Amino acid sequence: MTAVQITVLYFAKSAELAETRREVLTVPRQLTSRQLWLEIVSHHPSLRVIEQNLVLAVGEQYVSLGDEELLLEPGQEVALVPPLSGG
Question: Which residues belong to the signal peptide in this entry (predicted)?
Answer without folding.
Answer: none
